[in-house]
């Protein structure tokens, strides 16, 4: 019986990280599936090699419950003009799946109060469903 217990503990420790050969790291990721609350907007930054595109995703928690709103930031370099055009071309109501890095930031507001915010930086975006468009009357 004791050999069974010893063998079982060896197997458990070997298979604990069998899915990866890299060292474990801290990770803060979010997956959001929801609808764009508006058209994404581009903003220039002080760094000429980076442009910021911001958009909000509304996630419904049920028919009678208010949605949760998440503000997402996408960083785009000048070489990624197709990515920029794709993001800026998305219409309000588009259903998207956003894979993003998440981090918390602390700061003081204008009144000197300590505040905390959730920063969500897009890694990838997949369009799941385009909004219905009204037919143009002729």
TrEMBL record:
Keyword Mitochondrion: yes
Main location: mitochondrion
GO molecular function: single-stranded DNA binding
Gene3D superfamilies per record: Nucleic acid-binding proteins
Assigned GO CC terms: mitochondrion
Domain of life assignment: Eukaryota
Keyword terms, alphabetized: DNA-binding, Mitochondrion
Pfam family, one: SSB
Protein name: Single-stranded DNA-binding protein
Organism this protein belongs to: Thielaviopsis punctulata
């Amino acid at each position: 019986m004791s050999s069974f217990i010893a063998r079982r503990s060896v197997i458990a420790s070997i298979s604990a990280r069998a899915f990866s050969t890299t060292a474990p790291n801290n990770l803060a990721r979010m997956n959001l599936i929801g609808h764009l609350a508006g058209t994404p907007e581009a903003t220039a930054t002080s760094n000429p090699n980076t442009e910021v595109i911001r958009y909000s995703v509304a996630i419904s928690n049920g028919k009678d419950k208010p949605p949760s709103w998440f503000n997402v930031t996408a960083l785009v370099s000048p070489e990624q003009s197709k990515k920029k055009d794709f993001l800026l071309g998305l219409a309000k109501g588009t259903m998207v799946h956003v894979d993003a890095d998440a981090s918390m930031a602390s700061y003081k507001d204008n009144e000197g109060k300590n505040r905390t915010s959730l920063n969500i930086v897009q890694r990838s975006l997949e369009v799941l469903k385009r909004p219905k468009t009204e037919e143009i009357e002729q």
